[in-house]
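Workshop exercise sheet. Pairs work together: one partner reads the sequence aloud, the other fills in the structure field after running the prediction. Swap roles for the next sheet.
Pair: D.N. / O.F.
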Amino acid sequence: MRRAALLSLILLLCSIAALAQTQASCTFAFLPKVEIPNVGSRSWSPVGINDFGTIVGVATTSTIKYGIIRWAGGGVTAFPRTFLVARNNKGITIGFSFAKVPGGTLTVKPILLNGTTISDITLNGLGNGPQILLGGINKWGTIVGGYRRAGAGLSGFKRWPHGGFISLNFPGGLDTVASGINDNGTIVGSYTFAASSLRHGFIYDNGQWANLKFPNVHDTILVGISNAGVIIGNAFEEGTTPFLYENGTFKIISVPNAIPRSAAVRSISPKGGLILGTATFDSGRQGFIATCR
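Structure field:
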């Protein structure tokens, strides 16, 4: 009942195209470079976070990409030739692996990482054909993202642990990509219309769709939703404006001392609402964890 009431409220607020805006009140913790074993200190791009403060992402050297798991205490586990995207509270991580086949062609595969065991992520019934994009994973192991088949646009998907899935296509939209899912199964992402390349945010739950657009901007991309229904995303208009959306109000996330319109949010943890993002400073680009209200 609580979930149904929360979803109904979110859909109602979205349907009336709420225009209220304010500044979010946030505290920030900034992330240092990572120390990759046998490689050394490297800048990196954090992408996903769970409620334990474990962060996943990628670091790139001159020759190789390393998927990064940064533990809450600051320790690092690195996986060569991978790019890690999201991690749930049960310690399951999703991302991509890179390998060269004979002839030098680079292949990219979506993967699931459980401990040190890596397995491929496939969509049952589609074979190995589609290009798969990964968004998020919840505590049940349900994964969301998008896929493309030759000559076709992008469809979002919701995939269960056994590999079965449903396609997600915003009504009347051309390209749909799911970026985040909470433990209740509510999904957020973005879509375009056939007549426009502009991206709009969407919320999907149990067959119901809602549009969510940051006021007076060209593009809105939603990237995550907490179990409490707090949505985060990025608005694009001469740069990037990160925001959270709660109770009918958009709250702008302003990162102290960052170059204006350089910040972006990447992920939100399901229970604690930890917000992961990046911003550019005079010294370079750096990741951050924000707690906002």
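Discussion prompt: The mean pLDDT is 91. What would you look at next?
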